[in-house]
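Re: weekly structure request thread

Next one in the queue (394 aa):
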Amino acid sequence: MTQKPQVDFDELVKESGMPTTDDELRTRFNAIATEEGLITNTSKMSPFWRLITACVTKPVLWLKDALVSVVLANMFVATASGQLLRLLAWAVNITAKPASPAAGVIRFVKQSAGAVVTVKAGTLIQTERINGQIYSVATTADFTIPAGQASALIPVQATGAGGAWNLAPGYFRILPVAVAGISQVVNDEGWLTTPGADEESDDELRDRCRNQFNLVGNYHTDAVYRSMIAGVAGLSIDRIFFEHDAPRGPGTANAYLLLDTGMTSAPFIDAVNSYITDQGHHGHGDDMQCFAMPETRHVLDVVVYIDDPDNMTDEAQSTLKTGVENLIRSAFRENSDFDVIKTWPFSRFSFSNLGKELHAEFTVIDSLSFSLEDLISDLDVPRLETLTVEIKRA
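Done, posted below.
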């Protein structure tokens, strides 16, 4: 997507000859009054003239602000926002996507494989606190794990809507209320069957509106598939990457899907492929398949240097260590609780930028040491294999 144009509508109004400041309006009004010759007492000290001038200039300024900030800005997809952008989207047959909750499965491990254990609907599974926030999912129905089965994957749904619940494996592992017969819970690899999604932002909606103009042809181009996938999967279209080099022979192509948070699971990919292939939404003769974005795995060791760790309590050091870990994991797309630069395909992931973000978030840090150089990605996204954080004296 090309960069959104930046238009100064205020300057455009000025170029049209319209006065846009209080002084310009007073000067123009005084000139008109002088030219007409109807009022002779135009002194600044005249209460009558000050009243008349204010009655003329103030409404014009209000109208100018409305013209610049509302009317002109909301005439174009590139600059419209809020409900008026959604009105423009409706004109091209697009509706903004609402927020939706994540759904998946959590593994419940029994204390004794020989026991029969029932997990009630509404049982909560939580994360530890991540940047001050605890996330939880709840079982969707009563589920009985029969005797002889050591564990089971039980369907759950996030207790809130949004992409923040699309967490990486291992985050959901706390039972706030113990379940009789259960020793452990955890979200495994591929636990996420339906990713949660935030309400579509203005920028994401703009991109879909622009993409819509490419759908009028008779062929299934990238834009057509991008529109279908984004509509089904709840992805923004800039998280869909195509491979056109006939990976399975002539007429074939791949689409790789990337979530902002968490990892794209097999059930999620299967649902998208089923929509495209089994439900007839592909072009004649097309062989187009969706896959999770390929990953590169990295072992990262981080040393955090602080001035005097002996003056920090064990709790303060633990909080700092956990915070640093969570921020780094956020950069590697395991959670979304920090506003940091994330790993992307076809890009360079800069550890100097990551260090700057850590310094800004945790001012107690004096210096940082990373075991890796910058990560250069192709059609893949860097992920963490392991992460260790150690606190040392500066």
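The chain has nine helices and 16 strands. The two ends are 44 Å apart (CA to CA).
Next request, please.
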